[in-house]
Amino acid sequence: MAGEIIHVGDASLEGDAIKSDMTVILHFWAEWSGPCKTLAPLLEDIAPEYAGKVTIAKINVDDNQATPAQFGARSIPTLILFKNGAAAAQKAGAMSKSQLKAFLDSHL
């Protein structure tokens, strides 16, 4: 489905996201986080625009604690961009839609 956001966990992250042929943006989030609640609709809004170029994946840090530790995601929201199976860029904190798009565009 175009513009779909996938949900991953510690066990499925590598197969679903990291080993993807596409660029992947991984959103570290938690239900209780206000900044995460602000960023989530922005990701949903841009997902159709970046369909076919970027896979957007979300991982709940409360339910999946190994992955944030593995990638050094110490605050939420954190976005890590993966290219060719490796972390290529990272951005933490709330951001506007234009900042989010600029972050993605600068790494595509």
From TrEMBL:
<keyword id="KW-0249">Electron transport</keyword>
<dbReference type="InterPro" id="IPR005746">
    <property type="entry name" value="Thioredoxin"/>
</dbReference>
<comment type="similarity">
    <text>Belongs to the thioredoxin family.</text>
</comment>
<feature type="domain" description="Thioredoxin">
    <location>
        <begin position="1"/>
        <end position="108"/>
    </location>
</feature>
<protein>
    <recommendedName>
        <fullName>Thioredoxin</fullName>
    </recommendedName>
</protein>
<dbReference type="InterPro" id="IPR013766">
    <property type="entry name" value="Thioredoxin_domain"/>
</dbReference>
<dbReference type="Pfam" id="PF00085">
    <property type="entry name" value="Thioredoxin"/>
</dbReference>
<dbReference type="InterPro" id="IPR036249">
    <property type="entry name" value="Thioredoxin-like_sf"/>
</dbReference>
<keyword id="KW-0676">Redox-active center</keyword>
<keyword id="KW-0813">Transport</keyword>
<keyword id="KW-1015">Disulfide bond</keyword>
